[in-house]
Design goal:
Largest sheet: 5 strands, antiparallel
Strand content: 15-25%
Number of helices: 5
Structural class: alpha+beta
Helix content: 10-25%
Radius of gyration: 25 Å
Number of strands: 9
Shape: flat
Order of helices and strands: HHHEEEEHHEEEEE
């Protein structure tokens, strides 16, 4: 890894990473000339009825950011799930027995949360004025390597269906990508990452906080020949990482695979 990026650390990798993801986002924010660290400007608001200095009297007044309205406990129709509905859906989908038996990505009790989203209406409910609101709650149980999806009826507070699949690997959450980076940094195969980070920043890399990481699933033999150490990937939850120094260069870690189920690291090729 270190030899690959010895001269031009991260420059070529950034293009490759973006090409693999197929997406790139750029955003620019232009602040007023007098803007300070707080995001406010040094210009005093105009007195009532008096235009601000240098402002066209015919121009509309500056925009005002209003506080968000009070969120209700329950949404209506196809409204996004409210914070209260999100909490209730997750609580209903994870009864005490599951929370005690399941394990998250760090090995602690409770499953690893993935997504909670509004479920589609059923065909028979299409004409109802106020159909039941349902949520789909998905999580990964590292104790059994199971991908669990639960349908919760938020109107009746009932769990209507639970489906557990093994060998199905949805995209990893940010928390899983961060834990993968933590395992990689602590592993002997993370030596190149640590060396490149020190070359880029002059500091030692002891944890994932200085890195921006994005994880993507590695399915082992389903993606081609997998080394023996990675033969369990697919049934196990394995990820590869796009790794970038925050406000700095990319570091190529794509050939390293972190098995989050076994908490081991191996190299492709």
């Amino acid at each position: 890894m270190h030899r690959l990026l010895h001269r031009h650390l991260g420059k070529a990798v950034a293009g490759a990473a973006l090409a693999l993801t197929g997406t790139a986002a750029m955003a620019a924010v232009t602040l007023p000339a007098g803007a300070g660290a707080t995001g406010t400007t040094a210009t005093r608001p105009a007195e009532a009825g008096v235009p601000a200095q240098g402002r066209d009297p015919g121009a509309p007044p500056p925009g005002v950011v209003e506080p968000a309205g009070t969120q209700g406990v329950r949404g209506h129709g196809r409204d996004p799930l409210t914070d209260d509905e999100l909490r209730r859906a997750r609580d209903l989908a994870q009864p005490r027995a599951l929370r005690n038996a399941a394990r998250n990505v760090t090995g602690r009790p409770g499953p690893e949360p993935l997504l909670t989203d509004l479920a589609e209406r059923r065909p028979a409910e299409a004409g109802l004025a106020d159909p039941p609101r349902r949520a789909l709650v998905s999580f990964y149980d590292y104790a059994t390597d199971g991908y669990v999806t639960t349908t919760v009826n938020l109107t009746t507070s009932e769990v209507e269906a639970t489906d557990t699949q093994r060998g199905v690997q949805p995209p990893p959450s940010h928390a899983e990508a961060v834990e993968a980076a933590r395992l990689l940094i602590a592993d002997p195969l993370g030596a190149g990452l640590r060396q490149d980070f020190r070359q880029a920043t002059g500091r030692d890399l002891t944890g994932p906080d200085p890195l921006a990481v994005t994880g993507f699933v590695y399915r082992g033999r389903a993606e081609g020949d997998a080394p023996g150490a990675l033969a369990a990937c697919g049934p196990h939850r394995c990820v590869r990482l796009f790794t970038k120094v925050k406000n700095g260069p990319w570091i190529d870690t794509r050939r390293l695979v972190i098995d989050l189920s076994a908490r081991t690291v191996a190299r492709l090729g």
